[in-house]
Design brief:
It contains four helices and seven strands, in the order E-H-H-E-E-E-H-E-H-E-E. With 146 residues, the chain is of the alpha+beta class. It has one domain: Gcn5-related N-acetyltransferase (GNAT) (Aminopeptidase, 3-Layer(aba) Sandwich). Strand 4, helix 3 and strand 5 form a beta-alpha-beta unit. It is globular, with a radius of gyration of 14 Å.
């Protein structure tokens, strides 16, 4: 079985917002029933974003990082999951953090995604909490870790 061919690049909210919103809408609003008002809080212009694009030039995944190192809104379309897209997005965000001099990364992971983030060197801390009625756990990682 051959893997999905795709590229990951930094995106600009000002020019790529429609593509980024479409991915997040499908994953969070449609699949996970997160209210659109919670998913799109109006702060996206304060983050650096990355986007995964398939060979057909369609967007298939995204993620973002704040200037303080908080990774969030990691989303991969259902048809592209299990093929390395999420890992490539996360690696791109971690590389962007290193380039920006951000030493410590944090994120809030849905419980089912904890093993994915552990594989990338993140460790849990704190209690389980609800965000948009979905159980999450905070995680952290140093950008210097491999």
């Amino acid at each position: 079985m051959s893997g999905l061919a795709f590229t990951v690049r930094e995106a600009a909210w000002q020019t790529d917002a429609e593509l980024l919103r479409a991915i997040r809408h499908e994953v969070f609003v449609v699949e996970q029933s997160v209210p659109a008002s919670l998913e799109f809080e109006g702060d996206d212009d304060q983050y650096r974003h990355v986007i995964a694009i398939g060979l057909d030039n369609d967007p298939i995944g995204t993620g973002r990082i704040s200037s303080t190192g908080k990774i969030g809104r990691m989303a991969v379309l259902k048809t592209a999951r299990g093929q390395g897209v999420g890992s490539a997005i996360l690696r791109e965000l971690m590389q962007l953090a290193a380039t920006l001099g951000i030493e410590n990364l944090t994120l809030s992971s849905q419980l089912h995604a904890l093993p994915f983030y552990r594989r990338h060197g993140f460790v849990e801390f704190g209690d389980i909490f609800l965000e948009a009625s979905i159980a999450h756990r905070r995680m952290k990682r140093s950008t210097g870790e491999r």
